[in-house]
Amino acid sequence: MSETKPTRPYPLRVPENLMELAEAKSRSEQTDRSTALRQLLYAGAEDYVVGLLDQGRISSGKAAELLDTTVHRVHELAIERGVEIGASVEDYRRSRESTAGLLE
């Protein structure tokens, strides 16, 4: 059984074009409009948090905390958005070369 995350009501004026998008999403995915709006809001939050991560303003751990998910999922989100987190293959190669030089 999935855990229900705490929510709180918040009065919000939503632009008409976003309401139309939410209604289209609601019809397409056979869900209610409120759920569609929350999904759109969360998708925007994911983009924003991955952007902060890309800028080096937050850690992947903090990103996971903000999105209430795992660090692994944050890395998946970053990859989906073309954001490289951590060492690249080139960084890894240079590190191995440096280490090999130290051991000789």
Strand percentage, roughly?
under 5%
The helix-strand sequence is: HHHHH
Gap between N and C termini: 56 Å
- Give a count of the beta strands, DSSP E runs of length 2 or more: 0
Major sheet details: none
Mean pLDDT score: 89
- Cα radius of gyration in angstroms: 20 Å
Uncertain segments of ≥5 residues (pLDDT<50)?
Answer: none
Gross geometry: elongated
Proportion of helical residues: 55-70%
Q: How many individual domains?
A: 1
Annotation field: number of helices: 5
Judged by helices, strands and strand pairing, the structural class is mainly alpha
Explain this structure.
The chain has one domain. Helix content is 66%, strand content 0%. Helix 3 packs across helix 4. The chain has helices at 16-29, 33-54, 60-67, 71-80, 89-103. It has 104 residues and is mainly alpha-helical.
Explain briefly what this protein structure is.
The protein has five helices and no strands. With 104 residues, the protein is mostly helical. The chain has one domain (16-103).
